[in-house]
Description:
With 135 residues, the protein is of the alpha/beta class.
Amino acid sequence: MELVGGDVVVQQKSPAGTPHLRVREDRGYTVLEFHGEIDIVAATEIGPHLDEATSCAAPRIVIDLTPVEFFDCSGLRLLYRARSRVLDQGGRLHLVCPHPLTLRILRATGLSRLLPPAATLEAALERPGAASGTL
């Protein structure tokens, strides 16, 4: 499916057999949009696609949690793995997370310091450099 926004044509696809993930390109970034309940079942489905997206040299990734309804420790492991892989490859990773309960989990675990969340996709795409802090 093609989405047209302004001058930008964005390709969007759902990897085969993965209802919890949509992948698209936007302004030079691969946007991984998580959907629904991100639990151990969803993480098992998303993991290989996340690994594929972060396997190239200097990957530019945005993980968008906007459509997420539930997020547990399996989702945290996905985010931490993505951050580690992107940094190892010299890339950039941004996170979008507008939901108060998910933000609370990110703050409680310290992951929000390692991967500071933006409130919108637009804000994440406008951030310069890697969005990775330190503990």
